[in-house]
Amino acid sequence: MRVAFFGTSDFAVPALRSLARSAHRIETVVTAPPQPSGRGRKLVPSPTEQEARALGIKVLTPQDPNAPAFISEFGSQAPDAAVLAAYGYILKPAALSVPAFGFLNIHPSLLPRYRGAAPIQRALLAGEHETGVTIIALSEQVDAGDIVEQEVVAVGPNETAGELSRRLADVGARLILQSLTQLAEGKARRALQDPELATRAAKIAKAERSIDWRESAQQIHNRIRALSPEPGAVTSFRQRRIVLLRSEVSPVSDPGEPGQILFDHPGLVVAAGAGALEITELKPEGKRAQTGQDFRNGHRPVAGERFAA
């Protein structure tokens, strides 16, 4: 099939590579325009654009993929189908109607659960033991299209959002090939989503990054891994901001006050509202990421010191 690919973030890259190696032919990659990055605010192409150019595929970076000028250019290519993965824009009916077989979307959740901008982070925050990837036929209503393929993926107890995203992206890369092949052969199945089971996965708000040490160790652990590596869960020590990147729920059964560092155990063990948490990786303000033990050795906390919100 002649395919157009819409993607922007790292999550889209494995699917793009998989399609480029397949019998399907990618006519065009559509991605977000380069964004300013770093101290010099230099414009940097998206990960999808970088991969597409490495593969020698034509790239389009419209400011508005629903603008008539882009729709006209997109329509002139007459693709058989389009694949969308973490593109970052909502497409309107004019764009959706261009491919003869429509759009297929790779979504990192078990739809209809976790529709929205942050399905991976919300699943980890909720302490889900499993999530998955769903291929849907893209419709005007966000993440509500018919289900074409779906696969369940187990979540590791200490797995971060970054790690889980990479695994789900690989699953999506495999499922999208299956879906396109079934579509080309006229064997694609479509199942309606049950709107009664739908849940929302809203974008992570800035206030949600702050650690409340009165929560249980498991709740804090879920927050840390859901927000790692970006945007990162934050706390403070000696009035300096610290980003927490990795943790494990500690078996310690005699914790102190919430946020208090516990010295009778190796590593950096911190009391929570219920239970205790070992911080295994963190990034103090203005410094590189380091292990919890290195932080303890370097800062030499004294009895009674604690992390604060």
TrEMBL record:
(6S)-5,6,7,8-tetrahydrofolate binds at residues 109-112. The keyword Protein biosynthesis applies. Residues 203-300 form the Formyl transferase C-terminal domain. Keywords: Protein biosynthesis, Transferase. Residues 285-309 are annotated as: Disordered. GO terms for molecular function: methionyl-tRNA formyltransferase activity. Pfam families: Formyl_trans_C, Formyl_trans_N. Residues 1-178 form the Formyl transferase N-terminal domain. GO terms for cellular component: cytosol. Its EC number is 2.1.2.9. InterPro entries: Fmt (IPR005794), Formyl_trans_C (IPR005793), Formyl_transf_N (IPR002376), Formyl_transf_N_sf (IPR036477), Formyl_transferase-like_C_sf (IPR011034), Met-tRNA-FMT_C (IPR044135), Met-tRNA-FMT_N (IPR041711). It catalyses: L-methionyl-tRNA(fMet) + (6R)-10-formyltetrahydrofolate = N-formyl-L-methionyl-tRNA(fMet) + (6S)-5,6,7,8-tetrahydrofolate + H(+). Belongs to the Fmt family. Attaches a formyl group to the free amino group of methionyl-tRNA(fMet). The formyl group appears to play a dual role in the initiator identity of N-formylmethionyl-tRNA by promoting its recognition by IF2 and preventing the misappropriation of this tRNA by the elongation apparatus. This is Methionyl-tRNA formyltransferase. It comes from candidate division WOR-3 bacterium.
